Each structure stands twice: as structure tokens, then as C-alpha cells.
Amino acid sequence: MINLFQPEISEDSSKLLHDVFKSKWLGRGLYVDKFEDQFALSLKVNRSNIHTIASCSDAIFGVFNIFNFKEGSEVLVPSISFPAIASAILAAKLKPRIVDIDIETGNISLDQLDKFLSKKTVALFVTHYGGIPVDIKKIRDIVGPNVMILEDAACAFGTYNDGVACGTEGDFGCWSFDSMKLLTCGEGGGFYFKNKELLIKAKEFFYLGLPAQAKSGIDRQATESRWWEYQLNSPGRRSVFTNINAAIGLPQFENLNNTLARRSEIRNFYSNVLDKLNVNYLRQDDKNVSYANYFFTLIDRRRDELASYLKEQGVYTTFRYYPLHAIKIFSNFSEECKSANLFSETALNIPIHQALNDKEINKIGSLLENFFAT
Questions:
Q1: pLDDT of 74 over the 80 cut
Q2: CA distances from 177 to 7, 42, 132, 155 (A)
Q3: If DSSP codes are grouped into helix, strand and coil, which group holds residue 127?
Q4: Which of 196, 244, 275, 323 has its CA at a distance of 20 to 30 angstroms from the CA of residue 372?
Q5: What is residue 32's three-state secondary structure?
Q6: Which pLDDT tens digit goes with each residue over 189-240?
Q7: Would you say 262 and 6 are in contact if contact means Cβ atoms under 8 Å apart?
Q8: Nearest to 237 by CA among 127, 23, 91
Q9: The pLDDT of residue 225
């Protein structure tokens, strides 16, 4: 089976993992520091604005503890979103307002925002669908300076809009390093806060509420007689990105440009095939954007039939994400979402990961030609 997602882990990761095991410290440490240095460099942001934790979902749930919005406040979110976002909004005792999408991008419809804005609106949580960037500057113009802009960039690591990395234009951004992502660490996540004081608050929240600059017991035992005593700045939980995660991911930074170039090459191949067949797909033709190409999304009314045909021929495809407004526990927070309905009935994500070889890409191309020729 040709996978939709597939990690590409080098021998260098195995060597670093061996070094981590020899060090006898598997938790957060030196390798995590190196990973965060490289991550900040890739995002073109200050190192003090980012932090890594156990998962992107943790960041999504935790961000509402950091902003501490008033109970009952409203957060706007596109219907085509990762379900954890709506769940996190409800868990924080806030009200999600589900907004329709722009069917040309899969992203939130900017034309719909005015209709949903109210005095209760405190934040907007956008998703950069498959690495296609939302126009954050336009959103800021629409929502004003007081509404927080939160960015789900889990699938957009490697996308830059006018040289700015997705996830770093708003007030908060988050990324995933799970086994399906462009940069994989097996598991893990990272987040960005524009406000560095909020970043410190988040670091403390995700490590039990301990002061961000607190020394470990091992460090304190050299100078303190009761090094096991401590105080907390606030209630918190524990979400840790480890040296093991970092060792898997670190070597991938060196190959990032090649990874992005390979995905772009595959996209161009699919685009040429589908253009000849007159089949629609999500366009990525903004000259000011460098795209991550996390998804390649074709659009066709025979989507279900195509997915079954490809599966029978050994190619796995899917559609992400099932609309929030169609999920029963969220449906009361939505008005009609015509574009999201149409998108969810016609869109299909096909393999575009960098581990695909030419034989596999040509096979997919031939299958698409055979299907649409009938």
C-alpha cells in the first residue's frame, strides 16, 4: 500500500538516539535545546518566543488556560478544522462559533467573519489547511487589535508567506511533530507566543506551574541543603518534549530544503496530470508564498468512487478534516456551512510525502488518468 503519510528517518537519528541512551537522560535536556534552536531558526523568530511540548493538541488545549478568557466568550473557528480545537474551546467553558470556509483554499472564509464578530468575540482560531496560508494581515484588519489570532499551523511547517512562517503572524501558533508530519519526532509539538510574558506563563503551565527559571534538584543539590523543596507560581500540568523526540527530529532540519523541494516536485507532477484531465484541485499559485505541500487536495464529485478505486489499486487516500458543523457535539454552534459541505463531499487528499519514489508517483498519475478517462 502506498501510504498517504510516511516518515523519512535517517541513520543520523539512530546515532543520536544511541547517544541519548548512553547519556542516561531521556527527558528534556541538551538535545531539546538544540532542537528548539533549529526550530526557531527555521521559523525565523526569536528563540525566546517558542517552546516544545508533548503534542500539538496539548498546546491547543493549553492556550486557553494561558489567555484565560472570560467564561462564555466566543471563539471563531472554521468548520474544516482539527476537532481538538472545538473541543478545547468547550473545555475552557467558551463558545465556539463555527464559520464556513473558502472552497478555493479550505481555509476560513474571510467574507463570513463580519457576520460572526460580536462583543463576545475574544479570539479566532484559524487552520492553515494543508499548508495553504490564511491571510493573517487581512484577518487582523477585519477583527481589529483586541481579538486574539490563534494559528493552527500543525500542517504548515515549511510554509512562508512573504518570508514569514505560518504560525508566527498571529498572537499564538502551534505545530505538530507526530509521525505523519513533514518534520517528525515520533510525537511532539511546538508553540509560539508573540508576547514573551505569555510564553513564560505557558512554559510554567506545561511544567506543573514551576517557575520557568527554576533549577533542577540535581543542580540545586550543589548549593542547597534541602534541594527537594519547591514552590509553584500557578497550577499547571506536565507536557514534555524529550531528548528522544529531539534526537529523531534534529537531523531532518539539515534536509528540510530538499524535503520541501521534493514535495513541490510531486505537486507539479500531479498538477500537470490533472490539468490535462481538466480535474480541479486546490491551487497554490501565490508567487509570494513558499508552500509546505503537506496535502495535495483534488476536488471532484466522484470523490468517494475515486478513493475506493485508488484503495483497490494499493493507494491510500483520505479527506481531512470532517467538518466541525457535521459533528453532533459541535453542531449547535454553527449556522449553515454550504462551502464546507461541498468541500467535504468532493475533496480528497492524495499522497505527496517526500518518501514517495518516482515509480509510486507515476503509478498514482496513471491511476488518475485511468479513472478520469472512464
A1: yes
A2: 11, 14, 18, 9
A3: strand
A4: 323
A5: helix
A6: 999 999 999 999 999 999 999 998 877 777 788 788 898 888 999 999 999 9
A7: no
A8: 91
A9: 87
Helix extents (H) in 92-195 = 113-116, 136-143
Residue 335 has what DSSP assignment?
-
Q: What's the sign of the alpha-carbon dihedral 251, 187, 76, 148? A: negative
In the block, cell 453532533 appears at 328
Binned at pLDDT 50, 70 and 90, residue 135 comes out as: very high
d(CA 62, CA 193): 12
For residue 297, what are the β-bridge partners?
349
User: Would you state the pLDDT for residue 219?
Assistant: 75
Q: Where in the chain is the domain with CATH 3.40.640.10?
A: 11-254
User: Which H helix or E strand runs over 368?
Assistant: helix 358-373
Supply the pLDDT for residue 175: 98
Q: Which residues lie closer than 8 Å to 233 by C-beta, 6 or more apart?
A: 204, 209, 210, 211
Helices and strands, counts by H and E, the chain: 13, 13
pLDDT of residue 184: 97
Partners of residue 299 on adjacent β-strands: 280, 347
**What integer pLDDT is reported at residue 61 of this predicted model?**
98
Where does CATH 3.90.1150.10 sit in the chain?
A: 256-373
pTM above 0.70?
yes
Q: Are 105 and 282 contacting, i.e. CB atoms less than 8 angstroms apart? A: yes
Write out pLDDT tens, residues 8-62. Answer: 899 999 999 999 999 999 999 999 999 999 999 999 999 999 999 999 999 999 9
Q: What is the CA radius of gyration of the chain?
A: 22
Helix extents (H) in 161-222? 196-205, 217-220
Phi, psi torsion values for 73, nearest 5 degrees? -65, 160
Q: d(Cα 86, Cα 351) in Å, to the nearest integer?
A: 27
CB 148 within 8 A of CB 123: yes
For 103, residues 6+ apart whose C-beta sits below 8 A from its C-beta are 339, 342, 343
Distance of CA 299 to CAs 106, 114, 304, 308, Å?
11, 28, 11, 15
CATH class of 11-254: alpha beta
Type of residue numbered 181: K
The helix/strand/coil state of 38 is helix
pLDDT of residue 156: 98
